[in-house]
Amino acid sequence: MIGDIDRLFDNLWFVVGEMPEDLNKKPDIANVLVYCAGDRLYLMDSGVGLQMRAGIERALQEAGTARSFTLLNSHAHADHICHNDLIHTVPAAEKHHYLAEPGLEMLDPCAYFGQLFHQMSEYYDPLTGYQAYRLKYRLAGLLRDTLALFVGQERAMTMLMPNVFKKFEPIHPSRETIQPYETLLKRELRVGNVTWSGWVLGDDAVWVLEERGHSPDEVLFYVPEHRLLHTADLTFELFPTWPDSNSQVTREALHKCLAMARAGQVQVLTDSHHHQVYRGQSDIVAFLDTLLSDHERFREVLAQVMDEQDGLTVGQVYARVRERDDPVVRKYLACEFPHTPPSLQAVIVASLLEMGYQARGPQRRKRFFRPGSDQGGWNVARKQIEAA
Known about the structure:
Layout (H helix, E strand, L loop, with lengths): L4 E5 L2 E4 L16 E6 L2 E5 L5 H14 L4 E5 L21 E6 L9 H12 L13 H18 L1 H13 L13 E2 L6 E5 L2 E8 L4 E5 L8 E5 L4 E3 L16 H16 L5 E3 L7 E2 L1 H28 L3 E2 H9 L4 H9 L8 H11 L3 E3 L6 E3 L6 H12 L1
Parallel strand pairs: 4-5, 5-6, 6-7, 12-13
Antiparallel strand pairs: 1-2, 2-3, 3-4, 8-9, 9-10, 10-11, 11-12, 13-14, 15-17, 16-17
């Protein structure tokens, strides 16, 4: 339940978030970690909602007073930053707050996600990609297009976003306390035979590992004392999740985490949206291995669909994917909105582009063609017109 506390170790608390059945009604809430290393106290992300805030406050009380308090954000998506203002209430003589530099431009969720949805609109209408509450999103699309006549498409999309993020309120990112990780000394960090770039906080208390796959600013947290790895949204099933996600970087980071686990360097794994704790080498390896193999299988399915017919719209690709009797397809369909934030069509767009497929056609109605194809149906239509 939201805000419940699982005391993983004497000095480390896992505060449970929530991924509700219906995101249209409730926000997704990232898990949070509280860690006490001597006289230093660390809060890793800050969640969403009053229940989560109360759980974090209980964990901080259990941890007791400390000379130094440090708030670490894994990235700037709204479900990770809403209670950053807790830094003002924790009693400590010394306080620090870190977020990767690209995240500074992402702290306004309405502007940031308005821009992402505008980018998706180049290829298809993202408001038609939701299979739940279809009438609601079609009406939102009509409102957006009406507003766009006066303020432009991107601004119109941004103006709709407060309706999405009002369920996240209050949102207190505490912008004034943030210091970019990049202002610290970056180091080469070796975990077993795996090398990361990142930063060390305290006396080897928390290692911040650069990841940058799920979002341009995302980092992971490693606690050497307990060989605990917190993978934030790296281990979210559906990736690439957003237009600014990078699945190649995500895969590389997952392989690093897998190598660490196989070498016995990860004994406990937590993340932001699996509201459970993975313990022991076999469970952690199986979890990471499945994420990678499912991702590869889904790409195989997309390639099969595109091999069968060139020049499909995103909606057509999605419809043909839905027809596949494949366990990974069923799993991904069960994960998409309203159960998790993205629609599967958004993931399909980002995946096809990364796989090298070429998008041709008018805005919101583009068709995807195999790499190196002669524009498929569009080229045939043009030649027919020329011949006539």
